[in-house]
Description:
The chain has strands at 2-5, 9-11, 17-24, 32-38, 44-51, 56-59, 68-72, 77-82, 91-99, 102-106, 110-114. Strands 2, 4, 5, 6, 9, 10 and 11 form a seven-stranded mixed β-sheet that branches. A four-stranded antiparallel β-sheet has the order 1-3-8-7, with no helix packed on it. The chain is mainly β. It starts with a strand and ends with a strand. Helices cover 0% and strands 55% of the residues.
Amino acid sequence: VQLVQSGAELRNPGASVKVSCKTSGYTFTSYYIDWVRQAPGQGLEWMGRIHPEDGETSYAQKFQGRLTFTADTSTSTVYVELPSLRSEDTAVYYCVRIATMARDYWGQGTQVTVSS
């Protein structure tokens, strides 16, 4: 099982970013994927979840209306898009596979830096 994320991103405030997570080694449509992030000096923050089979999503209350999760079954890839970036969005973003209510495989992380 592998989850491989896109590379580091540097954006100005107000811009948008789309991070990808390409999966392999398992049946893509059988497992939820969580997105979590870790800001500098902070703990992990759950952003939400997507089920790739039907695109069902749930978002942490803090992020409702801000984020969009999508899944492409043809490439076994999930995406998170964040518009209107703020400096507080500077963090390492991770995709994580969920198996039996536990996170079992992680992407390597994508550094997103928001700075003018």
